[in-house]
């Protein structure tokens, strides 16, 4: 329900009614409604990171195709989970819950975030270098120092992440997007394809001559 309606338009009682449990069970199991959001958010974020990687693994063993699969999976997730996207990317929209999530699950979430960024960085470097890396690492052993040493690759991956975040936010606006800019809405698939091509061209331009 939070995925489609956001944290502020859903109540604990509505969630309890939807899943057939008593309202008192929220406080008993999670301490509060915000505690429930915090724990659910940690699980959703972990599943999100895992889902991105599943998309990459399903793509052809071509650097560009793998990065495109990663980006498209992000956009699809944001479109289908705009409520959670607001929680993760605009934590003040649910400040108490996100503070609790960081306090209780910050270590796990931070490791997942770092793994996700490491994967994006490696995908970006692969496009630049025309390579397909084995990605034989997880959140416990990702090549932190190696990736940090490639300053251009790290910077380009971060810039790519920022660009994709903009697309995720833009495309997850729902009715607001449809009413404010209908002409762009009609062309958004082509614009997204163009944006991804521009991202890939920019990455390739970093390749040594």
Largest sheet: none
The succession of helices and strands, N to C, reads HHHHHHHHHHH
Count of individual domains: 1
Q: What is the count of helical runs?
A: 11
On the 0-100 scale, what is the average pLDDT? 86
* Anisotropy-based shape: globular
End-to-end span in angstroms?
A: 51 Å
InterPro entries: Homeodomain-like_sf (IPR009057)
Summarize the structure.
With 209 residues, this protein is mostly helical. The protein contains 11 helices and no strands.
Your description of this structure?
This protein has helices at 2-5, 12-19, 24-30, 33-58, 63-80, 82-89, 95-129, 144-149, 151-171, 175-180, 182-204. By secondary structure, the chain is mainly α. The chain has one domain (41-93, 105-204). It is globular. The model has no long low-confidence stretch (mean pLDDT 86).
Break the fold down into its secondary structure elements and pairings.
Layout: H1 2-5, H2 12-19, H3 24-30, H4 33-58, H5 63-80, H6 82-89, H7 95-129, H8 144-149, H9 151-171, H10 175-180, H11 182-204
Helix pairs in contact: 3-4, 4-5, 4-7, 5-7, 5-9, 7-9, 9-11
What are the main properties of this structure?
209 residues, mainly alpha, 78% helix, globular
């Amino acid at each position: 329900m939070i995925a489609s309606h956001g944290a502020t338009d859903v109540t604990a009682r509505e969630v309890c009614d939807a899943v057939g449990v008593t309202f008192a069970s929220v406080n008993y199991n999670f301490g509060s409604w915000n505690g429930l959001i915090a724990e659910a958010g940690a699980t959703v974020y972990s599943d999100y990171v895992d889902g991105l990687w599943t998309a990459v693994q399903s793509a052809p063993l071509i650097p560009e195709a793998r990065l495109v699969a990663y980006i498209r999976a992000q956009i699809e997730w944001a479109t289908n989970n705009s409520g959670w996207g607001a929680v993760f990317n605009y934590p003040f929209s649910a400040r108490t819950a996100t503070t609790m999530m960081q306090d209780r699950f910050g270590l796990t979430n931070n490791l997942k975030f770092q793994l996700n960024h490491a994967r994006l960085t490696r995908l970006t470097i692969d496009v630049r270098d025309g390579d397909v890396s084995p990605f034989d690492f997880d959140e416990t052993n990702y090549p932190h120092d190696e990736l940090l040493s490639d300053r251009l690759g790290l910077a380009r991956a971060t810039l790519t992440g920022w660009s994709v975040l903009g697309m995720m936010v833009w495309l997850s606006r729902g009715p607001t997007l449809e009413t404010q800019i209908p002409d762009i809405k009609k062309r958004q698939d082509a614009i997204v394809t163009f944006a991804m091509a521009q991202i890939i061209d920019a990455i390739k331009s970093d390749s040594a001559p």
